[in-house]
Amino acid sequence: MDLSEHIGRVPDFPKPGILFYDISPLLAHPAAWQETVRRLERAVAPYEPDVLAGIESRGFLVAAPLALQLGLGFAMVRKPGKLPGQTVRHTYDLEYGQDAVEIQEGAVRPGRRVVLLDDLLATGGTLSAAATLLGSQGARVAAAACLIELAFLNGRARMDIPVHSLMAFDGES
Known about the structure:
CATH class: Alpha Beta
Number of helices: 4
Strand order of the largest sheet: 4-3-7-8-9
Number of strands: 9
Helix content: 25-40%
Shape: globular
Strand content: 35-45%
Distance between the termini: 18 Å
Number of domains: 1
């Protein structure tokens, strides 16, 4: 099955000049979504994770069903101020400014093997920041996986862990 047939392309969203890759049609197609989870399972299982971490917000849609399928726990990586209780934050630089990601304190115990999941790998900034955050808490971040990789943005180069993507686009697709 060609999963890319179930990815919408929305020009000029969220702003002019951007081509948005929409996973909504994939999520709405039961057979394609089931196949997606199966392929992710094959990519992630060899790393023998103890927990999967999903990056806000569409990464939750990827990580949660996969964690259920693999019988694993699921941890959320979110923007600041979105998680209750004590949190741990990592601030990282953007081209023009800074951003941050957080996890709940104790969400991932030291020594636990984690695989990070998101819907899309673009520049790699958020995925790299999430890996750094989890590592700062003693987690062993084994790999990352995503549905879509925008290969022309070369985000994979920012990562020092294996990265798996189910679909790669060159910017003209």
